Amino acid sequence: MALTVATAGVGGGPVGHAQVCEDLVARMPGSSPRYLGAVAVCGGIVAWALFAWVYQIANGFGSTGLRRPVYWGLYIVNFVFWIGISHAGTLISAILRLTGAEWRRPVTRAAEAITVFCLMIGGLFPIIHISRPWFFYWILPYANERMLWPNFRSPLFWDLTAILTYLTGSVVYLYLPLIPDFAEMAERCTGARRRAYRWLSLGWRGSDRQWQALERAMKLMAIVILAIAVSVHSVVAYDFSMSLTPTWHNTIFPPYFVVGAIFSGIAALVVVMATLRKLMGLQEYLREVHFVNLGKLLLLMSLIWGYFTFSEHLTTWYGNLPTEMDVFQAREHGIFGALFWIMVTCNLAVPLVLLGVSKLRRISTTVACGIAVLIGMWLERFLIVIPALSTPHLSSVSGGYVPSWIELSITAGTFAAMALLYLLFVKAVPIIAMWEYEGEPAAR
Amino acid sequence: MSRLHAEFEDSRTAAGAVRALIARGVPLEAIELYSRRPTELCHSLLRRKSRMSLVAVLSAAVAGGTATTLLYRAQMEYPLVTGGMPINSGWATGVVTFETTMAGAVLGILGALLWEGRLLMRRMPPPPPMPSGGAVIEVSGQDDTNALRDLLLEAGASSAVRAD
Q1: Residue A408 domain-assigned?
Q2: Domains in chain B, CATH or no CATH each
């Protein structure tokens, strides 16, 4: 499946560095009523989610839908989902950078920003989930007066180190290619904005020494971030596979989670790119070739995801252990059956039809697939977490899970937070790396 | 210190000028090239020594080693009840070792970039004004500036001026 190479002159976009910079800066949103309205709507939903969180803190965890035996509900579903999507950026950007895929240039910054924002959002869920967030610092390894250290063998501690490392790496990986653009922006602004951009550009002068150091650093970071990204979602999978809960104690989980993460990450990138293209008028930069290429990657990941899902279910079915089969049956034919088949349709059938047939492969179909995969992957996380806990293993302990308005509000709030962070980001920074983007010579 | 700035309208011509300067015996340290976009041709001519990979590996080793040592000490001196499992195990602490090693590599790369790129240095002379599409070659610390100016003009510079 060869990826199409973006050919010069196809897009009809601006030519030359100065024109590209001018054009991209001009497309950054101003303080229009439309922009402010979008910020207000997203901010309002985030504020509502914060209120829900405060309500939960004030009234205790009993105000949520979490009940024995389902102690992990939407919070953990969302945690896995957002951490998964965070693989959009660094992983995709790093792979494309290392393989020298030239068509990546208008795509990478949007992807890298997704990573940082998703990690910020995903990392909040364990803090929300512990219900008493002021005790969060107990998991930090510091010598305290009680001489009580965290349990270093706990996957939750591994989560902390993995997510902190990934967040640090992702921020650096996003920031490095921003440095020359900050210097460029400083020249184009005045007043406080100029000072801020100049400060952020760290004294960038555009010397060959600096370009060489930057390119070297980007290459090394791409290698390091790939290893970190794979490890992070493996660690998230360990949260499940280290427990003895039926269907969770599974060696396939780490690679299965990594595959799912890349899959949902590409889907998120497609949706974000389509939104930016529409709202910021980036049709000349984010062209059909970019969506078609990402669509092919999405199709590939869909097939790999299908293979992993089949393998996971086949081994469970073949083992025929009663406790595992209870969960298996509940997930496929029981109360979760409808969700399971919607997941399979969204993650496998829709991409196969819309992206497998080359005549159907267009921007609109790729975006439709992206949305379907995001829904499917959220359901996948839900179907991993909830059925395994709600299926009774002891006759004395049984119960289902219905999320309360608090969990639903916080879930909605995280999607709004993602949109809000992106709105603020595109106002401050050109969404396409100006120094990396080459104009289209034939479009002159 | 004498400085000579020569402006070029495209990076290919600038690369030719760099080649001419090197052929004349101007040391690489005296030549600097400024541009708004990276210039691949000049990168290969002005390839500078870098220790970024070494710094990344060393800082990774230091961070991973330190974290593993701290983990070991904490686990041995304040042992938890482990239900018969060993107090300290490479399997269980391996994840933390890996993550801190990678964190060390990230910070090492960032530090090396700041050092090698001479970023965050306040006492640097201001960069020459740069054309939007081309490049500016700066030759510093050379005595024969007039001859070098002629050479740069011959190599295709649109202008070449002393900037002391």
Answers
A1: no
A2: 3-36+130-162 (3.30.70.260), 52-116 (no CATH)
Interface touch A212/B78, C-beta < 8 Å: no
Give the pLDDT score at A14: 64
**What is the DSSP secondary-structure string of A393-423?**
SBTTB-------HHHHHHHHHHHHHHHHHHH
User: Is B4 an interface residue toward A (CB < 8 Å)?
Assistant: no
Per DSSP, the residues of B34-92 read: EESS--HHHHHHSPPP--HHHHHHHHHHHHHHHHHHHHHHHHHHSPPP-TTS-SS-HHH
Quote the mean pLDDT of chain A.
88
Q: Is the pLDDT of residue A4 over 50?
A: no
Q: Give the residue numbers spanning the domain of A90.
A: 17-28+66-139+150-401+429-443
Asked if the model's pLDDT at residue B1 lies above 80, the reply is: no
How many contacts (CB atoms, under 8 Å) link A and B?
154
| Maximum Cα interatomic distance, chain B, rounded to a whole number of Å | 81
What ipTM goes with this model?
0.91
Residue A412 counted as domain residue:
no
Q: Structurally, how many domains does chain A consist of?
A: 1
- Which helix or strand (DSSP H or E) is residue B160 part of? strand B159-162
Here the CATH number for the domain that contains residue A163 is 1.20.1630.10
Residues shown for chain B:
164
